[in-house]
Amino acid sequence: xxxxxxxxxxxxxxxxxxxxxxxxxxxxxxxxxxxxxxxxxxxxxxxxxxxxxxxxxxxxxxxxxxxxxxxxxxxxxxxxxxxxxxxxxxxxxxxxxxxxxxxxxxxxxxxxxxxxxxxxxxxxxxxxxxxxxxxxxxxxxxxxxxxxxxxxxxxxxxxxxxxxxxxxxxxxxxxxxxxxxxxxxxxxxxxxxxxxxxxxxxxxxxxxxxxxxxxxxxxxxxxxxxxxxxxxxxxxxxxxxxxxxxxxxxxxxxxxxxxxxxxxxxxxxxxxxxxxxxxxxxxxxxxxxxxxxxxxxxxxxxxxxxxxxxxxxxxxxxxxxxxxxxxxxxxxxxxxxxxxx
Length: 341
Ligand SMILES: [Zn+2]
Known about the structure:
By secondary structure, the protein is of the alpha/beta class. It has 2 domains: 4-234, Rossmann fold (3-Layer(aba) Sandwich), CATH 3.40.50.720; 260-338, TATA-Binding Protein, CATH 3.30.310. Helices cover 31% and strands 20% of the residues. The protein has an 8-stranded mixed beta sheet with strand order 3-2-1-4-5-6-7-8, with helices on both faces. A 6-stranded antiparallel beta sheet has the order 9-10-14-13-12-11, with helices on one face. Zinc ion binds next to α8. Zinc ion binds at residues 166-167, 169-170, 238-239, 242, 244-245.
């Protein structure tokens, strides 16, 4: 092992010979680059995972800095998309790794294209809807994926290997009713809980990528970092009646996402058009000039209208985040008024 960068990792016996080369050849797609995503990306890139695609729809805000470990105040000041900010930082951490940022909203119409060719998919989202879509795409394409979720001081993780283990739908047959579960918005979240779950996701991904399937934890891990407790419940075999991994029905794929969705932990709504209708941000900036405050960056346009208190952030794919509202109709009306179509 001529490369001193990984000397300590290589000395860890259970990884075995050849693990570093396997990692260097590996491709991981990370969906969501918030708290879990930044921590997992940090771990995988430092470990030498050869290619990491980071998919995220959002940009960095001050309230992220408490737990999203790759971001700093300069990213907030520059309103950088999270995927772009993460890729820049990761490139400085390990220039031997190829990090590809993708600033889009993941939905049933684009998820297969985003994850195709991945050795492992890692879940960094905060949405059971998006996880359901990832699960369907992973099962359909036969790609292992690692689920993770955090709220408060608690977290969960599960590793899905299509054709071998239960899938997400086997373990959570019904989607929870909206509002029935605590969210980061209602229950908060502390950084150590994120770190604990991200550590499990990262090591499971490394095991998968280096051929250590027998070392996977093989269950549903639940932990509470405040109480410092962790439990792994074996998930057994796939459910024989699972519509996803047994009957192979994938109703979430190929369909369009909802037009307007609330963003977790934020007093904001996302408005999207599907299929995406790209917006010429420079032209839009000219049209909005004089109607309020306009900030144009290479990645987005921030508009604070003089007429309302609600600002908008608009992305080149036509998506917009309408700030300071949780009313979908208000968000759509603002979108129509300022962006058009
Ligand atoms: Zn299943």
